[in-house]
Each structure stands twice: as C-alpha cells, then as structure tokens.
Design brief:
Blueprint lengths: L28 H5 L16 H22 L5 H15 L7 H4 L2 H7 L3 H16 L6 H11 L1 H11 L4 H21 L1 H6 L7 H6 L14 H21 L1 H5 L2 H23 L13 H14 L5 H20 L1 H7 L4 H22 L4 H16 L8 H13 L6 H13 L6 H23 L5 H21 L1 H6 L7 H7 L15 H22 L8 H23 L1 H4 L8 H12 L5
C-alpha cells in the first residue's frame, strides 16, 4: 500500500484535502493494475500499439481505484470518494497528487475526455454507499449508466470514435458486461450486504436473498441467474454491431471486450448457471475464438437460437442434478430428443417440488394454479428457461403440453393429502403423475401415436410410479402420506402406524406380504409397458429400456428384501445403473 502523498496525516479533517486520508487506505498502483488479468475481457491487449495500451491502462487504473474506494477501503468511504473527486479536478489543471490520477493527465489532454465522464464513476460508488438493493431492472440499468457505461465511452474517446450513435451501442455492451459481473459476484456482493439482482426478479422466481450465501444452489436461483445472464446476452447482441462500425485497432480492442462477454455467457451455461457453488470464469481459448471471429466478420450470433440452446442446457443440468435414475436413460438419446425430454422432466420436477415442498397449503394451491397458467403462455420469449425449452420442444415434436394438467391434478391430490381406498383409485393417481410423463415422452421419442402406443407408455409410467411408492413407504408415512390402498392394507392386517422412533409398527411378515402383493401388481404393469419398446427406434428404445430397467431392478430388490425396504430408502448403486444403461444401448432390453 503506497499510493498516498507524503502530506497524509492521521487525525486531521479538512474535507477535500489529502490530510483526511489515513496511511494505507489506497493500494499501490501496480496492485490495482495487476487486476486487469482477472477481468472477463482483455483490458489492453499486447497486439495494440504502446500508446493505446498506456491510455487504456490509465483509464483502467482510475476506474479500479474508484471501485476500491467505494467497495473495499476501510473507514469512511464517502470521505475517500470526496478526496478522489477533489484530485480528479486537479487532473484537469495538471496537478493531481495520486499516482494513478497523474497517469490520466496526458490521456485526458490527448483524447479530449470530459471530466463529467470520469466523475460518473465516482457518482456510482457514492450510490453504492446509499443504495444496496434495486427494485426493478430499469433501476439497475440506470445504475449501470454511471457504474459501467462511462468506461465504454472512455474507450471510444481513446480511439477517436466518441460519437453519439456509437456511444449508444457501447452503452449496451457495458451494461451487459456489468450485469454479467453482478451475476458472477452474487455471493461476494451479498456478503457486503449488496444485492444487484432486481428484487422483482427474486420474487418472480421465488428466491430469497439468503440463497445467495448458502452452500448449494436451488433450481429457482439457477433459473433466475439464467434469466439475468440471458438479459445480458441480449444487450451484448444489441451492442455488437459496434464492432462492424469500427476499424483498425479500435475494432480489435472492442471485439475483445465483446468476446469476453460472450465467453462469460458460455461459462455460465457450462456451470449450470450456478455462481454460488461454482466460480464462473470465461474460458480464454473460447474468448480468443470469439475475438477472432468478431474481428474478421463483426458478426452477431443468432439470438433466438442461442437463447433456446441455453434454455435446453439449463434443463439438462436440472435433469442431471435432480433425476439420477432418469438421467442415465435420457443420456442415450440423440441431441434433439435428449434436450426435449430434459425439458419435459425439468417442468415435471417443478410441479413435484411444489407438492413436496414446505409451503403452506394455500400457497401450494396458488403456485400449482400459476404453473398451469405459465404452461399455457409458454413461448420462446418466456423469462423462464424451462418454459422456453418446452415451447421449442413442443413446436418441433408436437408434444401435447396439455397432458401436464394431469400431472398438476395428481400433485394437487398430494397437497390435499388424499388417500386411496382401492387400487383403482390409486391407479388413477399413478396415471396422472407418471402415465402422463410416459405419454409426453412418447411424443419426444417420435413413435407411432396410436391408442396402443399411448396405453403402453401409460402402463410403463404406472409401473414406475408403483415402484416409487413401494420404495418410499416409510418416508411417505413419516410425511403424513399413505398411497397403498386401504382395502389391501386391511386385507393383510397392516395399518402403517409409526413407533415413537419413527419406524413402522406393523408385523414384518404381514408388511412383507403386502409389499410383495403390490410389487406383483407393478410387475404386471411392467410386462404391459415393456411391449412399447419394439415400437420405438433404437436410441429411444435404449432410453426407455434404461429408465424402466433401473426401476424394474429396484423393484426386484424390494421383492427380495421387503423388510429392508420398510426400514430404509433402497436404491441401486451407480455401477448397476450404468450396467442397465449399457445393456439397453446394446439392445439387451428387459
């Protein structure tokens, strides 16, 4: 720490004078300039002429010092910002005292940079001292007018392109880069009691500020980050024509900034839009490729295609994280079908999570009604990645999205705590929550859409759901849910009462007989459902066989060890799931 003038003394107070600064409050110039290597983009590429690099680094050093004063400095930051503003005025008389400001003197003279432009960065950091939340996106964009956009305009001044039409394009690029940085730094900012994600967006995606500092990331927060990153991508695309409007070294430099932004967008996708448990940083090789392409062509990406593919990747990430059994089968599909089925699963998971969550009854009912409305309005412009992916998949593969209404109906039964007197009543529930997914999957597989095919897909879904029910008897009972038909329970003398330590109090023999009886019913549904496989193409057959095969082997374990199943939640080891998937791909179907 060595950036203070010799006249700095502790304990003196005249505002606007260097005497108010305590020793050690400002870092050395080289310390701040070294941070250029950690930015999303190359600040001053070595391919640029030396005098241009000098100017760019001078502006970067100034901006970094101002940010340090507003974000990291110890003590009263307002006073420190006053000091910087005072020394900025001295830049225009050629008499600044701070070394980084001294480096600005020739730059403002050579490039005609107005003081108001540099002062806006100080104003942004003053705002940071007062404003720690932004209600709307419009408010956040207005903040970027001071915190980010001046940097782009400064760059245009350095290259002699500071025209109003080009500045407007630069503003979009800078706002995009600022939003991406906010998304990268959500944890760090939250720890400083600053949240740059708009409050209205947090509310829309049912996220809380507490989620920004927890070790794991919810699907809701990942969807919110996807939404904000997608906003930044759109702004970046809107500003990219600036590259084509420039020439020579200006084009090289600005293309590098845009390329860094695009590489950061891709880094978010690779991280599953999870900046909480993953450090999101752009890949330098990818950024270099984007930079070369922009320099040569100035081309924009296909915004719609990019957005849709990003939405699909988000659905695939949800599937990998939340559907350990299904993901083995889904991974066997070719790209378009894999993405579409991931979108179907991601939406189904959302519905299930509402029913299984901890919200009060009325809130769950309201959210389920909202889910129905969302589904009906899903389109490529939706704010939610799952809805974007579903809209595209439905258009491409004629997926009957209205079938999801049955899933919601089944989830509403869960919310009500409904129990089932007979197997026929349970069968209706299974067809709602699982048979519906079978029929939706049939559309993705592209199989013959006949009553026979739909019935077999429905049967396979029922079989999987019955397996789930048998696997989760104890867990469901502890949560106050009973799915086994009352008629069957009475026949076998089982009540599913719990002991004080939360275990099933029924006679193990009677309970085992009931479980094997229900498992026998599930076997019949598997037998009918497996008749769907010959109606599918090879990859779809492998996917379906793998997903159903994993559950079928789990059912076999439950039949072999019903007493174990009633004491703990049974599952298959990963190696066994991989073996099932491998056999399925090889055509060795159940």
């Amino acid at each position: 720490m060595a950036a203070l003038p010799e006249r700095a003394h502790a304990g003196q107070q005249p505002t606007g004078s260097f005497e108010v600064v305590l020793p050690g409050q400002l870092p050395a110039a080289e310390t701040l300039l070294a941070q250029a290597d950690s930015e999303n983009f190359t600040v001053a590429s070595r391919v640029l002429p030396r005098h241009i690099r000098r100017r760019l680094l001078a502006v970067y050093g100034y901006a970094r010092l101002v940010d340090y004063a507003g974000d990291e400095a110890c003590g009263p930051r307002e006073g420190l910002l006053d000091l910087l503003e005072h020394d900025l005025r001295r830049v225009y008389t050629g008499t600044p005292r701070i070394p980084l400001f001294q480096a600005l003197v020739p730059v403002v003279r050579e490039c005609g940079i107005p003081r108001e432009l540099l002062a806006r960065l100080i104003a942004a950091n003053r705002q940071d001292q007062r404003v720690r939340r932004y209600r709307t996106f419009a408010e956040l964009v207005d903040y970027c007018v001071h915190s980010a956009n001046p940097v782009g305009e400064l760059v245009l001044h350095i290259f002699g392109y500071a025209r109003s039409d080009l500045i407007a394009l630069s503003d979009r690029i800078c706002t995009a880069l600022q939003i991406l940085e906010h998304c990268q730094d959500v944890v760090e900012d939250a720890q400083r009691d600053r949240v740059y994600l708009p409050t209205e967006d947090l509310e829309h995606f049912s996220c809380t500020e507490q989620e920004l500092t927890t070790p794991s990331t919810s699907a809701e927060l990942r969807n919110l980050i996807w939404f904000e990153v997608d906003r930044a991508r759109q702004l970046l695309d809107e500003g990219t024509p600036l590259v084509s409007r420039l020439s020579g070294i200006a084009r090289l430099a600005v293309a590098g900034y845009v390329a860094g932004g695009r590489a950061t967008v891709r880094a978010f996708a690779a991280a599953g839009h999870d900046p909480v448990s993953v450090t999101v940083r752009p890949n330098k090789t990818r950024a270099l490729g984007e930079w070369a392409r922009l320099c040569l062509t100035g081309a924009r990406s296909d915004s719609t295609t990019t957005r849709v593919l990003s939405a699909y990747r988000q659905c695939e990430e949800i599937t990998r994280a939340e559907a350990k059994n299904f993901s083995y089968g889904i991974s066997l599909l070719p790209g378009p079908k894999r993405r579409a089925l991931s979108a179907v699963y991601a939406f189904a998971r959302r519905v299930d999570d509402i029913g299984d969550g901890e919200l009060p009854y009325t809130d769950k009912v309201t959210k389920l009604a909202h889910v129905r409305d969302e589904l009906r309005s899903a389109n490529l412009g939706s704010a939610d990645p799952v809805l974007v992916a579903l809209a595209d998949a439905s258009h491409r593969m004629s997926i009957p999205l209205e079938v999801f209404d049955e899933l919601v109906e089944g989830c509403e039964a869960d919310v009500r705590g409904q129990r089932y007197a007979t197997f026929d009543e349970l069968l209706h529930y299974c067809r709602c929550v699982a048979g519906s997914i079978g029929r939706l999957s049939l559309a993705v597989f592209g199989a013959e859409n006949s009553p026979t095919a739909r019935a077999r897909a429905d049967a396979l879904g029922v079989a999987l759901q019955l397996t789930n029910i048998l696997r989760d008897v104890l867990e469901d009972r502890r949560n106050g849910r009973v799915y086994l038909p009352r008629q069957d329970m009475e026949h076998f003398g089982v009540g599913l009462e719990l002991t004080e330590d939360g275990m099933l109090a029924d006679d193990p023999t009677a309970l085992g007989e009931l479980i094997r009886f229900e498992a026998g019913r599930a076997e019949q549904w598997y037998a009918e459902g497996f008749r769907l496989l010959p109606m599918l193409d090879h990859r779809s057959r492998a996917c379906c066989a793998a997903m159903a095969g994993i559950y079928h082997e789990l059912l076999q374990r439950i039949i072999a060890e019903p007493h174990t199943a009633m004491r703990t939640r049974m599952s298959l080891p990963a190696r066994q799931k991989v073996a099932v998937a491998t056999r399925s791909l090889a055509g060795m179907t159940p």
